[in-house]
Design a protein that fits this description.
binds adenosine-5'-diphosphate, globular, alpha/beta, binds zinc ion
Length: 725
């Protein structure tokens, strides 16, 4: 009888012992089904154990070990253990998050192509050509090369044994056969690199193998993607796998196509939460078995097991979506850097507007830096100008200058984008006679007016209802939408420019990936003249006809409470402004503001990210904010605010008893948006100047917190390196 330690997806810090009659060390890293309580759970074997922590006789027996998928390798188990340790999350929950749901359920990998057609991959051909020492694998490859490709995996396995096929796949010598149709899509001619791109590629390749973190800081349109592709190409030719992270699912289709076209002979796998269970499991298993050459995905792809990993790319590394905001609050970018160190491979973080943490690391020479200052296609950066709206009469939020600029674009057959980061028609409905406002019954937030489908909707908890015809409080018939969202701007633009095709691009217009793709296609085909968009429009897209970006309502973020608000605003404006003039036509960005002399706007107008970053970092240094300190936030929520605060007070007392030198513990406070979906929320910040001090403290503190009895229905979570404070 063997004792196995199983990580189960439960909010408990420990692993669980089970007995298994037929288990061996080869089962470490395999999924299992085990009895738990009165039911059954699936989990992962993380270790074998000589002795059980409970009485052997009371030990339950595993129901099933899933052996039709290779076990997760040791380095992968180390990775999830690190994430559990650093973010102080239960290992079972990290495993649950890292594994695709289908695989985790251990019910057999449905939808996997069990028996793919294989052929000799480019790396294999290279191996045949090179003068290598004779080996069993090489002899087999030579034999296969005499034969007519492709072959079913089962056929080779039958002929040569499963181990031999595995070996060839691991080396990348064999790959899944690419069908002819796909192969014909290959772009034969690569664009000549610009000098800056060329020196970035060379510099990164020249340092050779081994861990190093690079910041590729390239202005919008400078061709960072081309740099990624060249680096990837080099890695593939050496038989290595590449992990490429992108911030959002919305961005993957375009990039997927581009990567698939460039590497038609390689196996490109995408991993993101929008995939069906079967496809996600299949992609994960292909990565695990070494079939996948490139894994392209959102933050969860950082957990793809990659036996031949050679390079990690993180595009738009500053993007907030790399940080998971519920459950295990990991940062995929930070985990990627850790993985690079663990696997001793280079990591490239790319952005036009790096996070200040990354930028600071690069200036402090902890990260190596490559800069792209020139756009690859466009002759120049767009001109950026502020429109001082203090003394102007605005027409539904639009200044005469912006309207004139749009009109000009229409006359020239070019596209304009009005950027407003607020969807809906108006942020609130209110009654001028009694002061009633449309509050969400479950949150400390207003219900947003959505005129397109005549609803009042909460953007936080999602609850919605019809728009009342009269004030629910006093019966006044004349209730008014206050403020402005994308729908309102869209409506006004349609009135102002009846001949123009106005297209709104926000989360309401693009609910599904399909809708989103069709919107993008419409824009790219020139099927729209004026776009009204939220931050969805800010990232990564390339529309050659788009020459004007008008920014409306940005000032609100200048005065936000969060110390990261200016950084986010600058990033957003630089990104969205970067959509203008990416083709051969020059671009212009107009920012409507009441603070035209604000340094943030001045730096933006000069495209001077570095000056902005220096200014912000100076402030952060004097205020003692990250990256000069390390933070963790303990959050609690409950139906009653008192329960949440009381728990945090108690946690604070526990913290004070054991606080090491250099740890600062703040008072518990209600969160800015206290109520969310009927729960009241409060938070407690702890901070230290050294990561080690904070981490050492958290380990003991969190262990104690797990042992506390809490009020009914109270929940708490720890957020290490929180993005929102
Ligand atoms: P970034 O991600 O830095 O904003 P992209 O990688 O999207 O920029 O590149 C911007 C545009 O320039 C794309 O249309 C891309 O195809 C093109 N491009 C990039 N590098 C080159 C090059 N060396 N020669 C010609 N076109 C290029
Ligand atoms: Zn009223
Ligand atoms: Zn709500």
């Amino acid at each position: 009888m063997t004792i196995v330690r199983v990580a189960l997806p439960l909010p408990l810090p420990q692993v669980f012992d089970y007995a298994a009659s037929d288990a061996s060390a080869a089962d470490i890293g395999r999924c299992v089904k085990v009895p738990f309580g009165r039911g059954e759970r699936s989990g992962l074997i993380v270790a074998l154990d000589a002795e059980a922590e409970v009485d052997l006789a009371r030990l339950k027996t595993v129901h099933h070990i899933q052996r039709d998928v290779p076990p997760l390798p040791a380095d992968w188990l180390e990775l999830v253990a690190f994430v559990a340790r650093y973010y102080h999350a239960p290992i079972g929950e990290v495993v649950a998050l890292a594994l695709p749901p289908g695989l985790r359920r251990a019910d057999g990998v449905s939808g996997e192509d069990e028996d793919p057609l294989l052929e000799i991959a480019p790396v294999g051909h290279a191996a045949l050509g090179a003068a290598r020492r004779p080996s069993k694998a090489l002899a087999l490859l030579q034999a296969l090369a005499q034969d007519v490709a492709p072959w079913r995996r089962s056929v080779i396995r039958e002929r040569e044994g499963g181990e031999a096929v595995g070996e060839l796949l691991r080396r990348g010598w064999l790959g899944v056969a690419v069908d002819e149709a796909q192969r014909r899509g290959t772009t034969g001619v690569l664009p000549a690199l610009t000098d800056e791109q060329d020196s970035a590629v060379r510099a990164i390749l020249q340092t050779g193998e081994g861990f190093r973190t690079w910041l590729l800081q390239g202005v919008t349109g400078s061709g960072k993607t081309e740099v990624y592709l060249r680096l990837a190409e080099q890695m593939l030719s050496q038989g290595r796998q590449v992990l490429m992270l992108v911030p959002e699912i919305a961005l993957t289709p375009q990039l997927e196509r581009r990567v698939a076209q460039r590497f038609a002979a390689a196996n490109v796998v995408s991993l993101h939460s929008g995939l069906a269970d079967g496809a996600r499991s299949r992609g994960f298993v292909q990565a695990l078995s070494g079939h996948a050459d490139i894994v392209l995905g959102t933050r969860l792809a950082v957990f793809a097991p990659l036996p031949r990993l050679g390079l990690i790319l993180v595009d738009e590394e500053h993007d907030a979506s790399y940080k998971q905001q519920e459950g295990v609050r990991y940062s995929a970018r930070d985990v990627a850097v850790w993985r690079g160190r663990q696997r001793d491979v280079p990591v490239v973080l790319g952005s036009a507007t790096p996070s200040l943490e990354t930028w600071y690391h690069a200036r402090a020479e902890r990260y190596a830096l490559q800069v792209l200052n020139q756009r690859a296609v466009a002759a120049s950066m767009p001109t950026v100008r502020c429109i001082d709206v203090r003394r102007l009469k605005l027409d539904e939020g639009l200044s005469p200058g912006l309207k004139a600029a749009i009109e000009q674009r229409l006359a020239r057959g070019e596209q304009s984008l009005v950027f407003l980061n607020r969807r809906g028609y108006a942020p609130v409905l209110s009654c001028p006679s009694c002061g009633w406002v449309s509050r969400c019954p479950h949150c400390s937030a207003n219900l947003v007016v959505h005129l397109a489908d005549r609803r009042l909707r909460c953007h936080h908890c999602g609850c919605d209802g019809g728009i009342p015809h009269a004030c629910p409080s006093c019966g006044n018939q004349d209730i008014q939408p206050f403020g402005r969202g994308t729908q309102r701007i869209e409506a006004r633009l349609a009135e102002l420019f009846p001949q123009a095709r106005v297209l709104r691009v926000d989360r309401d217009a693009a609910r599904t990936r399909k809708q989103w793709e069709s919107l993008l296609a419409t824009i790219a085909e020139g099927g729209a003249d004026i776009l009204v968009g939220t931050q969805m429009m800010a990232k990564g897209h390339d529309f050659p006809k788009l020459t004007l970006v008008g920014v409306v309502g940005a000032d609100a973020s200048l005065h936000a409470a969060d110390f990261r608000a200016p950084e986010r605003l600058f990033q957003q404006l630089m990104q969205v402004g970067g959509r203008a003039g990416r083709g051969t036509l020059p671009g212009e960005v107009l920012i409507q503001t009441e603070y035209p002399a604000h340094p943030l706007y001045l730096h933006l107008a000069r495209h001077d990210f570095d000056a902005f970053a220096r200014m912000e970092l100076q402030e952060r240094r004097s205020a003692g904010f990250p990256p000069f300190t390390y933070q963790a936030m303990l959050r609690a929520d409950a139906p009653a605010l008192d329960d949440a605060v009381e728990f945090l007070r108690h946690a604070r007392r526990l913290a004070e008893e054991r606080a090491p030198e250099g740890l600062r513990i703040y008072d518990p406070v209600p969160m800015r948006m206290t109520r969310l979906a009927r729960r009241e929320r409060a938070q407690l910040l702890v901070e230290a100047d050294q990561r080690g001090v904070l981490q050492g403290f958290l380990a003991g503190w969190v262990a104690l917190l797990y042992c506390q009895r809490t009020a009914r229905e109270l929940r708490w979570q720890l957020d290490v390196d929180p993005l929102e404070v």
